[in-house]
Write a structure and sequence with these properties.
By secondary structure, the protein is an alpha+beta fold. The chain has eleven helices and twelve strands. About 10% of the residues have low confidence. GO terms for molecular function: RNA-directed DNA polymerase activity.
Length: 305
């Protein structure tokens, strides 16, 4: 089996077809906030690379899975996600705002009586290489060993943008070559077709495209049988009846959160600002779904109860 780390570099011919070869070669790169940023990082972080441990490159996957349980977070179902603490590096990076596909994109693309499949990319970030100007700062020392990421990791501020840029030409190529409507939110991909027969014939071709690009599909999380109901970004999308419904999990979490805040208010307790921000964000999840104007032609009904 091909190693995950930065394996996209071994499939440049396939990436060349959709015009993303240079993006893959570049990998995740960063724009420093100032020249002082680089100087500060060199003085405070790069010193480790001057030690004898610089040449001692331990296999990161083995080290983390066996010795670094305290620096990874639970992903669910006894699975773990490795997240690099890049807080110091992130302070010195220029962040670019960008727009990803979301539930509004799906509402605009969907047509009455559509059928859909959903793909989930496995270890998506870890397939992307890291550029030289960043690689030296994505390392850590543990038990007299120094490890350095050569594949994109969770935690770096620019990772979502880089992944979005890589996926955009892939989705455009898939849409054009197969005549199918599709969208992506990070590693969650949705494909739509009004004909279930056509969609069933397109599924093997879609999987072939992503296999050629070294994009491994998580069969456990993906829906490879056409359905008219799918879950996307916390919403249950009913394509047959043109409805958006809250998932049971999201509904239960929202009711629990509101109940907790009601009790907090009744007791006149002080709370942290970040907790208030979290509440606003969760409630905005509902409010941002309602739009005026031409979106009404889609005829979507929002059901939150």
């Amino acid at each position: 089996m091909e190693p995950i780390g930065a394996c996209l570099m071994n499939h440049l011919d396939a990436w060349r077809k959709n015009g993303a070869e240079e993006l893959v070669k570049q990998g995740i790169w960063v724009e420093w906030a100032s020249h002082q940023s680089v100087k500060w990082l060199q003085n405070n972080i790069y010193e480790l690379l001057q030690t004898n441990y610089y040449q001692q490159m331990t296999v990161l996957e083995f080290l983390i899975n066996n010795e670094l349980q305290k620096v990874i977070v639970e992903k669910g179902k006894e699975r773990w996600r490795k997240i690099m603490d890049c807080s110091e590096v992130n302070k010195h990076l220029v962040f670019q705002y960008f727009k990803m596909d979301d539930i509004q994109t799906l509402r605009q693309l969907a047509r009455n009586q559509d059928w859909a499949i959903k793909l989930d990319l496995e270890s998506a970030y870890n397939h992307v290489p890291v550029s030289r100007n960043l690689c030296r700062y994505l390392g850590f020392q543990f038990k007299d060993k120094f490890c350095m990421y050569h594949a994109m990791c969770f935690g770096i501020k620019n990772a979502p943008l880089v992944f979005h840029k890589l996926m955009k030409p892939v989705m455009q190529y898939t849409s054009t070559s197969l005549h199918i409507r599709c969208l992506s939110y990070s590693d969650d991909l949705v494909f739509l077709n009004n004909s279930i027969e056509d969609l069933q014939q397109q599924i093997p071709k879609i999987l072939e495209i992503f296999a050629d690009l070294c994009r491994k599909i998580s069969r456990e999380k993906s829906i490879l049988t056409p359905y008219q109901q799918i879950e996307f970004l916390g919403w249950k999308v009913d394509l047959k009846n043109s409805q958006l419904l809250m998932t049971r999990k999201r509904k239960a979490e929202t009711l629990c959160m509101i109940g907790k805040w009601r009790r907090t208010i009744e007791k006149n307790q002080f709370v942290r600002i970040k907790w208030v921000a979290s509440l606003i964000g969760k409630l905005n999840f509902l409010s941002t779904q309602f739009r005026r104007g031409d979106d009404q032609r889609n005829g979507y009904l929002i059901k939150v109860g």
